[in-house]
Design a protein that fits this description.
The protein is α+β, with helices and mostly antiparallel strands. The chain folds into 2 domains: 81 residues, 3-Layer(aba) Sandwich (Glutaredoxin), CATH 3.40.30.10; 110 residues, Glutathione S-transferase Yfyf (Class Pi), Chain A, domain 2. 54% of the residues lie in helices and 6% in strands. The chain has a 4-stranded mixed β-sheet with strand order 2-1-3-4, with helices on one face. Helix 1 packs across helix 8 and helix 4 packs antiparallel against helix 5. Bound molecules: glutathione (GSH).
């Protein structure tokens, strides 16, 4: 398998999951906007995972679930009752459909206004703060008194939430202001696999 990633992006969640899974994989750093990468993912976004098929699979949530399901012995996903599977699907849908998009205006303000001056772009970035605060507060509630996002144990949701919550380090209110998220983030930072991915993805 080969993971296409860019530094700091949500694709690092898939990299962490590959480490946790003990998968046989390689990585390639890409520029998502490049013509070359658009031949791999026409949407021009990371992550993408080459699993040896006719095309690479895309979408972080789908890739994370693929990694979990192909390495069931590591229990990075969920099995069990319909209610348990639903609860996990709900958490992943929150991360991919609410948490991640809350940051889009912050990172790409030019997509949310026809104005091009810096003051207008900064206004869009600032407008994103309230939504980011709401999803961070929700994540704080999901974590509760433990150190994991789902079911009190390590899952792909931890990897996904971790890389995205790190983005708040660029905001006035960082993850450190949310007590449960802070405990979770600090536990993740102690994880050797996470440390390896953060170090290697910067290189
Ligand atoms: N729906 C996609 C979104 C992926 C996404 O937004 N990736 C970002 C990095 S975190 C990206 O590649 N952005 C480049 C761009 O939008 O130009 C997924 O969940 O994988």
């Amino acid at each position: 398998m080969k993971l296409y990633y860019s530094p700091g992006s949500c694709s690092l969640a898939c990299w962490i999951a590959l480490e946790w899974a003990g998968a046989d994989y390689t990585v390639e750093k890409v520029d998502p906007k490049s013509d070359e990468y658009r031949r791999i993912n026409p949407l021009g976004m990371v992550p993408a995972l080459d699993i040896g098929g006719p095309r690479a699979i895309t979408q972080a949530d789908a890739i994370l679930q693929y990694i979990a399901e192909t390495h069931p012995q590591r229990r990075l996903g969920v099995d069990g009752s319909a209610e348990q599977r639903f609860a996990f699907a709900e958490t992943l849908a929150f991360l991919t459909g609410d948490f991640h998009p809350a940051f889009w205006p912050f990172f790409s303000p030019q997509r949310y206004t026809t104005r091009e001056d810096e003051a207008s772009l900064e206004a869009v970035r600032t407008a994103a703060h309230a939504r980011i605060d709401r999803v961070m507060t929700h994540l704080d509630g999901l974590i509760g008194s433990g150190e994991h996002v789902h079911d009190g144990r390590r899952t792909i949701a931890d990897a996904y939430a971790f890389v995205m919550a790190r983005w708040t380090e660029r905001l006035p209110k960082t993850w450190r202001a949310y007590a449960n998220v802070a405990r979770f983030m600090e536990a993740m930072q102690r994880d050797p696999a996470v440390g390896k991915v953060l170090a290697q993805s910067k290189a």
